Amino acid sequence: PFKWYEKMRKESPIRWDSEREAWDVFDYATSKMVLENKDLFSSDRSQKKADSEKTPLERSLIGIDPPKHTSMRALVNRAFTPKVMKHWKPRIARIATMLLDKIDPKSEVDIVEQLSYPLPVIVISEILGVPIEDQEKFKEWSDWVVAGPKDNKPETISALMEQQERVNKELFHYFKEMIALKRETPGEDIISVLLQAEEQGVTLTEDELIGFCILLLIAGNETTTNLISNAFYCFTEFPEAYERIKENPLATLPLTIEEVLRYRSPVQAMGRVVKEDMDLHGHSLKAGDFIVPWIGSANRDEQQFPNSQQFIIDRKPNLHLAFGKGIHFCLGAPLARLEAEVILEEWIKRFPSFKRAASFTLEPIESAFVYGLKEFKVTIL
Ligand code: HEM
After folding, report:
1. From the CA of 216, how far away is ligand 1's center (Å)?
2. How remote is the CA of residue 256 from the centroid of ligand 1, in Å?
3. Ligand 1 test: best mutation among 72, 208, 330, 342, most atoms within 8 Å of CB?
């Protein structure tokens, strides 16, 4: 999409797309402004629906405005503090080691299937405190929520919706039971942390807590998978950069990961709703209009990033918008960064030399809004 973005930034950085009935924004400055200006742009994308018709996800953190957002975010923030992340690091390292142990260096390795896909699902199920014996089932649900059915594709849309409805219900009940369980015997997981907050007088209703758990599945899994796959994609595409990373992974990985986030952003676009009639650089926006800042394009804007089309592993400053900006800034950013760092570091330690496999094909995920790969086969040298 990057050629197209470049053209749009030059020709019409803000435009109305009559087919999708939405405004598109392609430049960095305006995208950033739309993402962070909560007074002019709402995150309540389902505002036309009655409250009772909204799904738990639509009522969750990512789809609400202040003042509700402010109190809910303050509450869930405590489950994602740097201190909590420090606590998670050895566990993530253990999961990464377990995945790497399964790799047979003599055969082709699909990075997506063997590393970048399982890691975030296992991590989030541990963070939520899903018992090991439920993890398979949980993985199935979480795939379903994010990507729809893999096998046994239903024949009709209504059959699909029925199945979707069923999975949503199953998930809802699953978390409901889980909450009851954690109330009785709290653990170190996020659900227990949030239930303890309740005891201290800050409350999240049960529905809100369930919606939050489902949001974590959706917001955290595919995005992190794509970040890790995209890092491997960049390593094989820019061998000189990879040579430098290999020499000193510990020192180079943090900034490299930021550059992967900028250069190949897992989330390419994020929607908002215009709150009041306004003029935006000569365009008349009306209250209720949908507007989409294209993060993937903003992150390649030459006005903001010198040599924006180059992959520069020590780029600094690197104020990319891959995790958004403002009050909705990605809650899981520290976790996603940590997961990427741990798995890439462990991989480089064990398998420093690898190349794209003979059977390699570049198959991007078919969606304009996420950027990632369906598979990425490599051979270990
Ligand atoms: C919000 C991207 C990983 C949880 C966001 C937003 C973006 C984003 C762009 C802003 C949405 C908006 O402005 O409307 C990413 C990327 C990830 C990632 C690129 C991986 C590389 C995660 C993980 C979790 C997570 C691992 C949790 C386990 C959330 C939540 C929000 C959010 C809860 C909503 C925050 C709010 O509305 O206040 N993410 N995300 N994300 N993300 Fe992430």
Report:
1. 8
2. 20
3. 330
Please give the average pLDDT of every successive group of 10 residues along the chain, which has 381 residues: 96 96 97 98 91 81 93 87 87 95 95 93 88 78 67 66 79 89 89 80 81 85 94 96 96 98 97 97 96 98 97 97 97 95 97 93 84 94 93
- Compute the distance from residue 369 Cα to the ligand 1 centre, in Å: 14
pLDDT tens per residue, range 341-360: 999 999 999 999 999 998 88
Nearest-CA residue for atom 17 of ligand 1: 223
Look at residue 262 in the predicted model and tell me its pLDDT: 98
- Give the whole-angstrom CA distance, residue 227 versus residue 234: 10
- CB–CB of 49/58 below 8 Å? yes
* Residue extents of the structural domains in the chain: 2-380
Please give the number of the atom of ligand 1 that sits closest to the Cα of 326.
13
Give SS3 for 52.
helix
* 3-class SS string, 308-319: CCCCCCCCCCCC
pLDDT of residue 340: 97
The H or E element spanning position 25 is strand 22-25
Find the 132 Cα to ligand 1 centroid distance in Å. 25
For the CA of 339, the closest atom of ligand 1 is 26
Residue with the smallest CA separation from ligand 1 atom 30 is 331
Q: Which CATH architecture has domain 2-380?
A: Orthogonal Bundle (1.10)
Report the candidate in 262, 274, 281, 339 with the shortest Cα–Cα distance to residue 41: 274
> Per-residue pLDDT tens for 201-259?
777 888 888 888 888 887 888 899 999 999 999 999 999 999 999 999 999 999 999 99
Environment class of 291 (CB within 10 Å of its CB; exposed 0-12, middle 13-18, buried 19+):
buried
Q: Answer for the pair 195, 182: CB distance below 8 angstroms, yes or no.
A: yes
Q: What residues contact residue 160 under an 8 Å CB cut-off, 6+ apart?
A: 148, 149, 154
Q: How far, in Å, is the centroid of ligand 1 from the Cα of 332?
A: 6
3-state secondary structure of 139: helix
Q: Which residues pair with 292 in a beta bridge?
A: 24
Measured from CB, residues less than 6 Å from any atom of ligand 1 are 35, 43, 61-62, 73, 124, 215-216, 219-220, 223-224, 227, 266-267, 270, 322-324, 328, 330-332, 335-336
